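The freezer alarm interrupted the setup, so I double-checked each line after restarting. Inputs confirmed:
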Amino acid sequence: MLTKDFKYVGQTYPIHDAPQKVRGELVYVSDLNLPKMVYAKLLLSPIAHGIIKNIDTSKAETLPGVIRVFTHLNTPNKTYSRYRIIPDQDFCLEDERLFTEKVRFVGDRVAAVVATSLETAKDAISLIQVDYEVLPVLSTPEAALLDEKTKIHPDGNLIYQYDYQLGEQVLVSNDSVEVETTTRTQKVHHATIETHVCVADYNSAGKLTIWAGCQGAFGVRTIVADLLELSYNKVRVIKMPMGGSFGGKQEAIIEPITAFLAKEVRRPVKLIFDRKECIMATMTRPATSTTIKTSVTKDGILEDCIVDTVLDAGAYATSSVDNAYAMSKKICRLYRIPYYQHQGKIVYTNTPVAGGARGWGAPEIMTALEIHMNAVAKRLVMDLVEFRRKNLVHPYDRDKASSFSLGNARVIECLEKGAARFGWNERYYRMPDKGRYRRGVGLACAAHKNGMYGGFPEHSTMTLKMNEDGSFILNTGLHDLGCGTITSIKLITAEVLDIDPSNITVLEADTENGPYDFGSYGSRVTYICGACAYEVAKRVKEKILECASLIFRKPKQYLEVANGTVGISGHQQQTISYREIATTAKTKDNTDIVITHTYHGTSNPGVYAVHFAEVEVDTLTGRVRVSDYLAVHDIGKAINPGMVEGQIQGGVQMGIGYALYEEIKIGNDGRILNSSLANYHVINAPDMPTVKTLLIEQGGDEGPYGAKSVGEIAFVPVAAAVINAVNNALGTSLSDMPLTPEKILAAL
Amino acid sequence: MQIEFKVNGEEYQMDICPTMRLVDLLRGKLGLTGTKEGCGEGECGSCTVIMNGKAVNSCLVLAPQIHGQEILTIEALEKNGQMDRLQESFINNGAIQCGYCTPGMLMSAKALLMANSNPSEEEIKIAISGNLCRCTGYNKIVHAIKEAAEE
Ligand code: FES
Ligand code: FES
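Predicted 3D structure, all chains:
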């Protein structure tokens, strides 16, 4: 139990750049204008599968204002993976090139125009004529696996398959119950309100600069530098303020192309995707189909769990293999299961490219799992809470997959406290509604991770320097996606140094001027980077005490920091300010107070949430209103509780959309049927319930001040909680997402 | 064509192409990049500005339509170094995450409060129903607007 009160950690602070944001002053990549900047526009394939037979750019080239036109004919045919984070990374299939000769989905890159204005570039694009040889379109994984003649990529349509087993297969008891369910999850658009934008410049010194709204500047550098055959010291990627990401800007989608164009035309180039391009031609959450089969004793104890997942990667592999593999590692972090088996297939289709999306596989698999768990409990005629409580992991259980400790895994506490707070029993066991409007309640548990330790290298580096006046600059490789990362890191540093956070500046990633970091994904930022900030601040504090000890002429163990000063323990009157210490260190002791520290992750505990939803279904229209919502999170320690709550509320919003409305609809011919926000429904304010939160803060793991992750896990249980509530309201067992009014009416 | 209009209290005369959108005029010609563009089709509200007291999507307004009109953008919300209470309330209530929706959200809220100084929660939600925010789940935004109205 954490009992110590902190000064800054645990208090609510606004996001660091809020004052600029409310004034419209913050410069996002979209707002960036450089002298002599020119604009690029892409020609995207209108067909889902075909070979370019002929491409005529002559009319476009002669349009006044057009600088150059690029196609597969005059650009490198080198292939790359947009997913790569580090050189030599496994499972980064290099299957895409800047401009393709064979189009594989509606939205594939065919050509680009660079012109002095965006208008001209657009006009020129419409003048390019392309003849395609049309190939059969494989718009679903089933079709792609069946049709062996039509190969989307040379090696066939099955990208990868795995069969993964954990534990010993046991003989299930003869009175066991076997339950099987299948859940389908759909492709969704990340719908960041700022679309994908990039600016790049290549100067006469041979230096390429990329201004990117990205999640991993060093990954972007790796991809671009290796693709364009530039030395890494000649490529500078600057992480810019960005209008949301949610995984949609994790991979280098438009940076390679913008960088290439800038290098070719030797002028700063800006490439802006409009909403339609953003929906069709960036990334989607992968569509999955998961069948789960479990054997359970009649007392409700899980004996085995057999899972089969097919993941639709779309036209290029990007992160899909890792994404699917991540799914297989999740279930045993949540439930105690003696024998676990997971088969997965990752399949190319002629549809938009799938990739990283908030939760990285966890939302897909946990939705399937929690719909399944309800089906099992129903079959056993067992209380939903009771059944889960019997099988959930306990604190310090071992993760079956990694054999590391799950840490202080408080999921049972989340479930019990949440059920009490929500009034689960009263609501679940009340008389069902009979009229037009039917209320129902649902709950779902979820597990996720804290960083990449166990499956990937995991470290972070930061440099903390003390200025002459006693203020600080923390140089990092961080990426604030709008989630409040910078503020959290500042609070952690301020807590260690015992100084008001306004005296600390935290810098974001810049591959030229800052230290290395893998990026903002894998729920690693607070847990790993936060611990790095904690450690570097502790070391700087030691240095401050050493310098102060020279001034006081007292050993440093007699000294302590308080409020930006150092004093002698027990003698509050005698203090010297950080300013005096920093200046004296420089001038008298010839010392600079600066430390660079690399923190290595050595654990990856589970992070947990249990969500409770109440819905009201209109049986006449099939529309669902989420009328009440409680999110309970095992967060270890909330560094900035107001922002934590905001992350959870945002996650719930996205999850309700996932459960009920959102889907990138794709026709049999591969055409996208809703490539506009007019027909792709994102939840707005009137649709949104008040989301109550309950944080379980029991610390016990290696994160800073005991903190664990929140941004991704906040999304993970939502869809299952809402779907379970709808099924409870209607007595149905719907599991084909999203639960649109049509599907609901059809099920009644 | 020649048009005259006011933006944030300043008068402009300009020769513009009649198909130019207001959002491009503001961002491109006047350098007022606080107004954002998220969809270009009137669906996200990030380009919201106030035209003669009403919130409008500047991506749907063509430049000739602002002839003789008065436009307010996010840059005018702060007056004489004093933030509007909506701005303060957004900051204090954690209503901002990535901030890309924030200018549009604030302008819709401002237009609401200009017309109705004491809106109900329902009225607030309706007033910002055309402003999409993907980060916050709206709870804190609605609360921030309510608190600003109550002050
Ligand atoms: S940009 Fe105008 S409403 Fe979206
Ligand atoms: S704060 Fe990111 S869209 Fe609203």
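Quick read of the result. The pocket of FE2/S2 (inorganic) cluster (ligand 2) is lined by residues A 193, 244, 482; B 96-101, 133-136 (CB under 6 Å).
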